[in-house]
């Protein structure tokens, strides 16, 4: 169906019988119906009006696919299509030679540089290499742009060529070539001048929209300083007034923030009495501040105010730290040590001897007192025996604890005192009896 001026392929939709389809030299721009022909092996679409073949990306295992003489610039959608093609003999499996494209015109003034953007993309989405260029154009290192300088006034039709030759992983070769036409309109140099006026802060941030002044060359211009809230003018870069020139001019008004009101920091007790001199913080309007309390001897901070963090503003601010008196705690400088305490070098041995029982009266020589006098009270014949209890010993602590000083001597003193008292009483009683005298206790 070549040379038949075919433009509508809808009758081919779903056709599973055709394996070889040749549609050269027609007016085809929509080839979507071909994508439904699942048994297609060979496809010729040379010299048509195709700008894209993306509609065919679902086809697989074609042996030949020719698209010469069209206007195709983007191959990135066809990567899987190309990788699925089957190599057959020495045939060039996929071919897109002699593509052409006319780009929209670029307009510049005399002396300016015209830039054309490379319209091509390879299978991986990268610009295809520019191999040659007219009119002293310069190709960028990444092949994305081509620049044309020093062009004469009027219309210049610049051209450049793009080529790509590659082979798929399955060995199918592919050739692509394109001629790009870039119209460039060069106008005479401007007879008017422009002044661009910017309003920025010290960091280069734009504080107000820029102004563009224009006028005839050699006419006077006058820029205007804008009033910007919370900012004041610091300096002007460029000439705020002057004459228009052929070259564009720039005037930049640079502003700085105005000073905010000071922040007073006070240090008082709970009664409001000043404990330390107040501090004053200063800064630019809107800038942040942070206040920390002082350390004051003998006082500790009672509470932290809620406005220790804030921003400098148009009004005075105060931050007040309230302290309360610290309670002193008295601690001895050195521990108190008993200088008289004696620590044994060796553990005290367990006692091995006990005090014997002591009889307070002579054996069997007890004289009844009832016969001495009827006026005296009678006493029972009693033998008083006193003995010391065996010492209580803690086996576990015998080797660790010292006996308390005076415990043993006090017990012995009580026993001896009782013994002397009884012995003395007995002696006096016997003596009085022998003398025939009464004895009263």
Automatic annotation (TrEMBL):
Write down the superkingdom of origin.
Answer: Bacteria
**For this UniProt entry, which segments traverse the membrane?**
411-429
Keyword rRNA-binding attached: no
Q: Where in the cell is it found?
A: Secreted, Cell wall
Its predominant location is secreted
Tell me where in this chain the Gram-positive cocci surface proteins LPxTG domain is found: 395-435
Which segments constitute the MucBP domain? 195-256, 262-324
Q: What InterPro entries does the annotation carry?
A: Cu-Rt/internalin_Ig-like, Leu-rich_rpt, LPXTG_anchor, LRR_dom_sf, MucBP_dom, SDS22/Internalin_LRR
How does the protein associate with the membrane?
Peptidoglycan-anchor
Alphabetic keyword roster: Cell wall, Leucine-rich repeat, Membrane, Peptidoglycan-anchor, Repeat, Secreted, Signal, Transmembrane, Transmembrane helix
The similarity comment for this entry is: Belongs to the internalin family.
* Name of this chain's protein: Uncharacterized protein
UniProt organism field: Listeria aquatica FSL S10-1188
């Amino acid at each position: 169906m070549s040379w038949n001026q075919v433009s509508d392929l809808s009758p081919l939709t779903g056709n599973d019988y055709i394996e070889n389809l040749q549609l050269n030299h027609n007016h085809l721009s929509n080839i979507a119906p071909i994508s439904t022909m699942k048994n297609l092996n060979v496809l010729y679409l040379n010299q048509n009006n195709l700008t894209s073949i993306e509609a065919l990306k679902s086809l697989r295992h074609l042996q030949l696919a020719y698209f010469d003489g069209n206007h195709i610039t983007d191959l990135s959608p066809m990567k899987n299509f190309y990788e699925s093609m089957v190599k057959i003999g020495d045939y060039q499996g996929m071919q897109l030679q002699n593509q052409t494209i006319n780009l929209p015109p670029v307009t510049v003034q005399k002396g300016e540089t015209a830039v054309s953007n490379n319209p091509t993309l390879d299978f991986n989405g990268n610009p295809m290499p520019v191999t040659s260029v007219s009119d002293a154009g310069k190709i960028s290192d990444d092949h994305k742009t081509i620049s044309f300088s020093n062009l004469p006034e009027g219309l210049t039709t610049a051209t450049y060529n793009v080529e790509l030759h590659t082979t798929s992983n399955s060995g199918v070769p592919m050739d692509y070539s394109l001629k790009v036409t870039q119209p460039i309109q060069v106008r005479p140099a401007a007879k008017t001048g422009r002044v661009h006026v910017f309003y920025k802060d010290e960091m280069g941030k734009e504080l107000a929209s820029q102004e563009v002044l224009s006028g005839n060359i050699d006419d006077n211009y006058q820029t205007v300083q804008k009033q910007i809230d919370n900012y004041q003018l610091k300096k002007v870069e460029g000439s705020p007034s002057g004459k228009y020139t052929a070259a564009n001019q720039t005037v930049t008004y640079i502003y700085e923030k105005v000073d905010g009101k000071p922040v007073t920091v006070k240090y008082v007790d709970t009664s409001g009495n000043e404990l330390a001199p107040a501090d004053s913080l200063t800064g630019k309007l809107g800038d942040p501040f942070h206040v920390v309390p002082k350390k004051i001897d003998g006082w500790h901070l009672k509470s932290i105010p809620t406005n220790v963090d804030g921003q400098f503003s148009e009004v005075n601010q105060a931050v007040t730290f309230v302290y309360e008196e610290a309670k002193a705690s008295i601690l001895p400088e050195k521990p108190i040590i008993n200088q008289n305490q004696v620590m044994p070098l060796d553990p005290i041995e367990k006692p091995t001897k006990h005090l014997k029982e002591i009889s307070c009266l002579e054996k069997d020589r007890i004289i009844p007192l009832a016969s001495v006098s009827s006026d005296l009270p009678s006493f029972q014949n009693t033998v008083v025996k006193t003995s010391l209890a065996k010492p209580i010993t803690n086996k576990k602590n015998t080797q660790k604890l010292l006996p308390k000083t005076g415990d043993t001597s006090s017990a012995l003193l009580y026993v001896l005192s009782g013994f002397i008292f009884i012995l003395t009483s007995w002696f006096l009683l016997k003596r009085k009896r022998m003398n025939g005298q009464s004895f009263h206790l």
